[in-house]
From TrEMBL:
GO cellular component, one term: cytoplasm
Protein's name in the database: Transcriptional regulator WhiB
Keywords: 4Fe-4S, Cytoplasm, Disulfide bond, DNA-binding, Iron, Iron-sulfur, Metal-binding, Sigma factor, Transcription, Transcription regulation
Family according to the record: Belongs to the WhiB family. Belongs to the sigma-70 factor family. ECF subfamily.
Lineage: Bacteria, Bacillati, Actinomycetota, Actinomycetes, Kitasatosporales
Post-translational modification note: Upon Fe-S cluster removal intramolecular disulfide bonds are formed.
Gene name tied to this protein: whiB
Length: 267
């Protein structure tokens, strides 16, 4: 695919301030309409999909539409051919992406196994990261990136599901807090400064309750909710198992206090 500098000079938005393509939801429809009839709509969209650009409008597609397509076909590395055949029709692009062999370096059986793990674990892992304190957008980005890395290293990963959970968590932690799991402390802010998601799922009572815990405590609770033993959590975080058990105990005690306080306040 040609680089953006080769086609962007012919784009309909070439005279528009680039930041105007990164707009709030209420202005998105107007900006998307600017892309209709653009001669480079396909390479623009392919560029965004190939490079996993998760913000802004590219080729007339919003970030939500691009995220959805990438979730359906996480291992597609080049979208140009698919989009040339499907145009900007979402359903056609999704169907073509799912039909083609996306992982040519794997056998058909290996690709099927990867796809099964992806479909089984994507949504639970997003929920896992939300429980750990992430916004839905950050959680989806981290899980998507971890799935791509899993596809690339499939033959070297002995246990895909725990590997995927650990990798997604580390990617999320690094992108939001700029730290490694072994650098977790209770002094780190309880929520990232850019956590402003208004997703309905994040307003569930348990998620909101967990977010009132320090980061380290809600992290070990999130691993426990995902079915991990303390030893597995310790291995994923690179800390002693005793540290995990201690923080689980503290988290449960604080949750009990918070529940009591909330119940008392409601009387």
């Amino acid at each position: 695919m040609s680089g953006p500098t080769e086609w962007s000079t012919r784009a309909a938005c070439r005279t528009v301030d680039p930041w105007e393509m990164f707009v709030p939801a209420r202005a998105r429809e107007r900006r998307q309409s600017d892309c209709l009839g653009c001669p480079v709509q396909i390479p623009c969209l392919a560029h965004a999909l190939d490079n996993r650009i998760t913000d802004g409008i590219f080729g007339g597609w919003s970030q939500r539409e691009r995220r959805a397509l990438l979730r359906m076909a996480p291992a597609v590395s080049s979208w140009s051919g698919i989009l040339e055949a499907a145009g900007t029709d979402f359903e056609k692009a999704a169907a073509l992406a799912q039909q083609q062999r996306c992982l040519p370096w794997l056998s058909s059986e290996e690709e099927a196994a990867f796809t099964a793990v992806f479909r089984a674990r994507f949504v639970p892992l997003v929920a896992f990261l939300i429980k750990a304190g992430g916004s839905r957008q950050d959680a989806e980005d981290a899980v998507q990136s971890a799935c791509v890395e899993l596809a690339e290293t499939w033959r070297r990963v002995e246990c895909p599901e725990p590997w995927l959970r650990t990798t997604a968590y580390r990617m999320w932690l690094k992108s939001v807090y700029r730290i490694r799991p072994d650098e977790l402390t209770e002094e780190i802010p309880e929520s990232p400064a850019n956590d402003h998601s208004d997703d309905v799922a994040e307003k569930l009572a348990m998620v909101q309750l967990l977010r009132r815990l320090p980061l380290l405590q809600r992290t070990v609770m999130a691993f426990e909710f995902d079915g991990c033993e303390p030893s597995e959590t310790a291995e994923a975080l690179g800390v002693p198992a005793a540290n995990v058990r201690q923080n689980l105990r503290r988290a449960r005690q604080k949750l009990e206090r918070l529940l009591d306080e909330d119940a008392g306040g409601g009387q």
